[in-house]
Amino acid sequence: MLDTKRYFECLNSEKVKPGKRLHKIGTLNVDDVETTPLIWKNKLFRCEWTGRLNNKTSYTHLVDMEDEKCIGHTADSCLFPSAYTENDRMFVYAVSNDNKELLLFWSDDLLKWESKSVFKAPEKWTLFNTSVCKSPDGYTMALEVAGPKEILGEPFTIVFLKSSDLYNWELLDIAEYLYDMNRYTACPVIRYVDGMYYMIYLEEMPIHHYVPYIVRTKDLKNYELGIINPVMFYDDDDRKIVYPEKFTADEIDRIHSSPNINNSDVDICEYNGKTIIMYSWGNQFGKEFLAMAEYDGTMEEFLKSFFC
Fold first, then answer.
1. DSSP of 5-48, one letter per residue?
2. What does the pLDDT read at residue 34?
């Protein structure tokens, strides 16, 4: 719940002043959406879900963002992947094709993969996006779900899981730990910084428009809304093209002419002192594009910049 008194105190505070800015770099792909930027063996990669929007079998691949080459392929026919790395091991979490089971795939070389089931949806639940971060008690996962309204509220809602080792996960009591039953809250990315969980998620605006908002919490129970929101807003900068040579004339036309009512599926990492931001834009009905932005500061600076 928004503390309106604190909100207006912060709004008028000298602590809220212009600083470093988020800059949209442009479109990287057509028909690709949920994507995680991350560092593996000191190089910037993205874990990318592909195939879903062009009538092919969906799968996840890892893309070296220095040369745009794919060197990993996993999670065939799975949905909504996210990724996490630790000690040069790649962990990919993805939802089964029926949206009822959360699966883990892991590899040390992106060639040979092992897998296991880590969470099965309770009856009548549907699973969607995930995000994982390291936290003082091990690891925390934000999981987007939908289900019975009397249990999970309005679709979509974010629940939380905990793990001590990244391989075994337990759902926290949804009577205490969730966000937010009262409205559409989707596509979470969660990070733990300086004693606080920061979570960027998707808000539904009037007339089918979508923008990412940010909140923070110490306990995954009580949330503070960022004094500056939304995190970013759809505009024509989304249509800038990073690598024009990789697109066909038809694809370039789609980028320039498709409706854009959405900046969604945000995910972030820090690389060389900057915050790398992956996101999707488009119409949320099949015309979707993968894009990139940067914040000229660390991830901690970026996350804290929305609060006073």
1. HHHHHHHTSTT----S-EEEEEEEEES---EEEEEETTEEEEEE
2. 87
Looking at residue 159, its pLDDT comes to: 98
Place of tokens 């004339």: 249
Q: Which amino acid is at 169?
A: W
Which amino acid does the sequence have at 276? I
Q: Are 160 and 142 in contact (CB under 8 A)?
A: yes
pLDDT tens, position by position, 129-179:
999 999 999 999 999 999 999 999 999 999 999 999 999 999 999 999 999
Whole-number pLDDT of residue 44: 98
Are 287 and 254 in contact by the 8 Å Cβ rule? The answer is yes
Q: Which residues make Cβ contacts (< 8 Å) with residue 267, sequence separation at least 6?
A: 34, 35, 36, 37, 82, 131, 189, 277, 278, 279
Distance of alpha carbon 215 from alpha carbon 224, whole angstroms: 5
Going 183 to 184 to 188 to 193, the CA torsion angle's sign is negative
- Write down the residue that tokens 């119409």 correspond to: 283
Angle among Cα 99, 120, 115 to the nearest 5 degrees reads 85
Measured CA to CA, the distance from residue 142 to residue 178 in angstroms comes to: 9
Q: Please determine, for residue 67, whether its predicted confidence score (pLDDT) is greater than 60.
A: yes
